[in-house]
Amino acid sequence: MEYTFAEFNQALYTAARERRAPLVGHFELTRRCNLGCIMCYIRQKAGDAQAMREELSAAQWIDLARQARDEGMLYLLLTGGEVLVRKDFFQILEGVSSLGLMLSLSTNATLLTPALARELARYPLGLVMVTLYGASAATYGQVTGVAAGFERTLRGVRLLQEQGVPLKLRSTMIRQNVADLQGLLAIAEDLGLELGLDGGLFGHRRSGVDSEPFAVRLTPEERLACEELYRRAWAQKQGVELPEPSEPRKITPPDPEEISSAVVPGGKENAFRCASGHFSFTVNPDGRLCACMLMAEPSVSLLPEFRFREAWAQLGGLSDQVPVCPECQVCAHRKICQPCPARLQGETGSAARKAPYLCRKAELLAGGQYPAARSFYE
To answer: How many domains are contained in the chain?
Structure first.
């Protein structure tokens, strides 16, 4: 029997969820970055000595990858911060590349040189995701604090393309760059690359970070208008027809007996409807194993014993204790909303409390103004 790659992945995800195997890992190698994005929830200065002291060593990251691989990890994303600010980054990449994993990397590409691009191309990276925060130097200056970052990013992208490295562009839309969306799409088209949009800002930030996502994020109306434009541009490129705006549609509330989010062994209801805590995890720079990169808790410290198997089992139990939002469970808009515990906690301070921002977005999606955006959530 033959499978497409997508079908193969789905089969793996289903099996991993049933067995609670840690199939997908995210390693945040550092919180440090050479840019200062005003919306970033993790940023610390590239030369922050305290942050450097708190980071796991290259040997620890490689050992952790080996342990996680032995427990079932197949997919690994290396991210930050900006991974290239670590002087030992290629030592880490060399070590994890020998483990038979499907590797991907996230970078802002501004630090790439021809030599570094050639070095990256030596490794079996399935995808390198490059963040692109604007379509001009002026916008880059507003968003990242480094206007020259625009040309440096494009230079980095072209260097990687010259080496045949598989690439995808990503962006986060905020008030300072939303007017550049058409320009970003044009840049992606010119480079022959796909542009992905991050899922939005929901207020979470790490301790010690001075950014304020709420101050720069789009309103629900602005966010959906942005998504509508993006989805229609994608559909046009793919030759896909999307519905036109129409009158609001009636949504029938779900039967409480049929309401279920993620189910774990034993039939216990779990607040995480996604992969988090089921077959996906994040490890922070200081060695905390988390269910979700957008939530500080639940988490388990891997230090000092550094035993992944025990920590993963403990994290599963803690993830099962994250409360479900009762109002979200019976909401008529639940299927087109994003009431995940990370977003709810980031918005309200509790995973069990509904978030007005998300409620408003769901109400708009339920109407007929944003059919292209809605098609993504259904």
So the answer is: 1
